[in-house]
Fold this protein.
Amino acid sequence: MAEFFTPVFWAGLLQIIAIDLVLSGDNAVVIALACRRLQPEQRRIGVFWGVLGAVGLRVVLTAFAASLLGYPWLKLIGGLLLLWIGIKLLLPDGDGEHEINPATSVAGAVKTIIVADFVMSVDNVIGVAGAAGDSLVLLGIGLAVSIPVIVWSSQMIMKSMERFPVIVTLGAGLLGWVAGGMIVGDPLLRAWLMDQPGWVRPMAGVLGVAFVLGLARVFGRRAAADVDRQIL
C-alpha cells in the first residue's frame, strides 16, 4: 500500500495514461470503422464486446511484456524500439493506414476490432510496460484508468490532436523520456549505473527526448524535400 503514496507511483501512472492517450488514437478509429455499417443497437454491442476483448488481450500482452523486461538486453532493445516509435509518431502518415473493412454483423465487428487492436498495439504495449517499470500494480491501475477514457472520448482525443499538434509532439517526447530510462535501467547496465552520479538516469531521459525530436525533424525535412522533388 505504501507504493500508492510515492511520487514515483503517481508519475508512472500519469506517464501510462499519457502514452495510452497518444498511441491509442488509431485504435479508436479502427473501432469506428469496423462498426460503421451496423445498426445503432448492434453498433453499441459490437463496440462493447470488441473493446472488452481487445482490452483483455492488451492487458495480458502488456503484463507479459513487463515481466520480460527484467531479463538482460530486453529493456535495452525495448528502449531502442520505443525511440523509433516516438520518431515515427511525428512523421507524416502513409496512405492506406486505416484500410479496415466494415463488418456487417456484431460477431464480425468484434473479431475485426480484436485482431486490428492486436496488430496495432505493439507500440502501446511496449510504451506502457516501460512506464510501469517493475510494478504490476501500477500497470493494472494505469490500464484500468486510461482505456475507458480512450474508448469513450476517442473522437475528442483525435480532434484535439488534429487541432493542437503539440500534443503529439509532447507524447513523442514522453516516449523518448521513457525509452532513455528503460535503456539505462537494463540489468546489463544496472551495476554500471550504481557507480554513476544521480543525474545520469534523468539525463538519459533528456537525451531520449532530444534524440526523438531531433531525428524526427531530420526525417521530416527529408520527406518534405522528396515530395518537393516529385512535384517538380
About this structure: The CA atoms of residues 42 and 106 lie 6 Å apart. Residues 2-231 form one domain. The first helix runs from residue 7 to 23. The chain has eleven helices and no strands.
